Amino acid sequence: MKKILGVITARGGSKGIPRKNIKELKGQPLIAYTIKAAQESGIFNRIILSTDDVEIAAVAKKYGVEVPFMRPAELAQDATPHLPVMQHAVSWLKENENYNPEFVAILQPTAPLRQTWHLREARDLLLKLNADSVVSVVEIPGHYSPYWAVTCDEGGLGELFIGDPIRQRLPRRQSFPKKSYAHNGALYMFKTSLLLNPDEPNFYGDKVAIYPMEEKYSMNIDNSDDWALAENALRKLEHSEF
Questions:
Q1: What residues pair up with 36 in beta bridges, in sequence order?
Q2: DSSP 8-state code for residue 152
Q3: How far apart are CA 68 and CA 62, in angstroms?
Q4: Average pLDDT over residues 72-99
Q5: Residue 8 near residue 47, CB atoms below 8 Å
């Protein structure tokens, strides 16, 4: 059995929705949805929280998540990327607990519609393809597809984003030669060695498995409008209306 570490990342500061990670969404803290999905998936050897906030840490502990350290303030700023946050988490566990997982997953609380089977299927895909990483994505709607997108030069003249003249735009979405996807933020799982690569630390490696998720599960909460949409989506899930 592969050792997989799940890291829930939840800093205290949130400008769009104050205290977002522990704000109640349909009766329970937002972070609880990610915790429960991770726990019930059964794929993680350990699930920990990386946070700078004692209140978030207390909520996570209540739901059974380890909080082995508090994240340094310099890694909890508005513009702090995930890479140094994950490097800190993995390095701390290695140096302080001699814990060395083979894979690590980023679990963001802002994706509350992520389900247990998404985590299992993504893990299975990663291992089946012997990939360096697996990333969850959602299909880009036809009207946003690169095959219909246009770009404009400095003189105001346009062409299709793929480089063809606009007159060659495919008339029907069904005619696209292949689907295009966007990251949905629900799941990143990768070899631990990628994080600690001295030359090019990253989450992806060269061989990236793509795990498509249905749009109805691809909610990523950033503002109050997203919050309302998530509440409605959870209500539909409860009543099997999807």
A1: none
A2: E
A3: 14
A4: 94
A5: yes
Does the pLDDT value for residue 103 go beyond 70?
yes
Per the structure block, which two tokens stand in for 204?
Answer: 């992806």
Residue-by-residue DSSP string for 17-58: STTGGGSEETTEEHHHHHHHHHHHH---SEEEEE-S-HHHHH
- Please tell me the distance from the alpha carbon of residue 132 to that of residue 93, in angstroms, as a whole number: 21
CB distance 170 to 100 below 8 Å: no
CA pair distance 57, 63, nearest whole angstrom: 10
The structure tokens 């799982």 sit at: 189
Rounded Cα distance between 85 and 81, Å, is 7
Quote the pTM value: 0.90
* DSSP reduced 3-state for 174: helix
The confidence band for 241, taking pLDDT boundaries of 50, 70 and 90, is low
Reported as a single tens digit per residue, the pLDDT across 132-158 is 999 999 999 988 999 999 999 999 999
Strand spans (E) along the chain: 4-9, 24-25, 28-29, 46-50, 103-107, 133-139, 150-152, 158-160, 181-191, 208-212
* Half-sphere exposure (Cβ direction) of 79: Cα atoms closer than 13 Å: 0
Q: Tens digits of per-residue pLDDT, 181-230? A: 999 999 999 999 999 999 999 999 999 999 999 999 998 898 888 889 98
First to last CA, the chain: 34
Q: What's the CA gap between 55 and 60, in Å, rounded?
A: 9
Instruction: Report the half-sphere exposure of 99 (CA within 13 A, side-chain side).
Output: 18
